[in-house]
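User: Working on a comparison across species. This one is Prefoldin subunit 5 from Cryptolaemus montrouzieri. Can you predict its structure so I can line it up against the others?
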Amino acid sequence: MICCYSRPCRHFTFINSSINKMAQISSVPQPHMQQIDLTSLNIQQLSTLKSQLDNELSLFQESLSSLKIAQTKYQNSGETLGQLTPEVEGKEILVPLTGSMYVPGKLYDTNNVLIDIGTRYYVEKDLESAKDYFKRKTQFLTEQMEKIQVLGFEKSKIRDAIVEIIELKLQQQKSS
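Assistant: Here's the predicted structure for Prefoldin subunit 5 from Cryptolaemus montrouzieri:
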C-alpha cells in the first residue's frame, strides 16, 4: 500500500509491500506501511506514481458515471410511482418489450408493482414499499458517490503534490 500526504516542506509516501497488484494511495497513514520521502524518489519513479494516480482517478470518474446513471434510474422509478394513482387504473399504456419495442396494455392494479432487484429477479411490492425501496437505493448510491468523490479529491491532491515535486526536480536539473 502507498499513502501520501503533504507537510509544509516535505512530501511523504507510505509503502506496504503487498501481494496486491494495485496499490492503494491515501493521505492517511495506514498500519503496516513504511514511510518514504517523495523527494527522494527519482523522476521516473514519481512519473510512475503519477501515472498510477491518473489511472485511479480515471477509474473513479468511470465509477461515478456508472453510479450516476443507476441513481438517475432509481430516482426516475421512484418519481414514476408517484404517478400511479387509483384514477389511472384501467387506462391504456405502452408496455416496453425491448428498449425500442412496445405493446399496448392496460393498468389493472395500481396498488402493486413488480420491481427488478437484479439478475432478472423481480419482487412484488405495494406502492409505499416500492417508493421506500427506490428511496433507499438512491440514498445508498448517493453515499457511495460521495465516498468516491472524497477519495478522488484526496488522490487529486496527492497527484498535484507529485507533479509539483517533478517540476521542482526538473528545474533543479536545468539549473545544474
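For your comparison, note: The CA atoms of residues 11 and 38 lie 5 Å apart.

User: Helpful, thanks.
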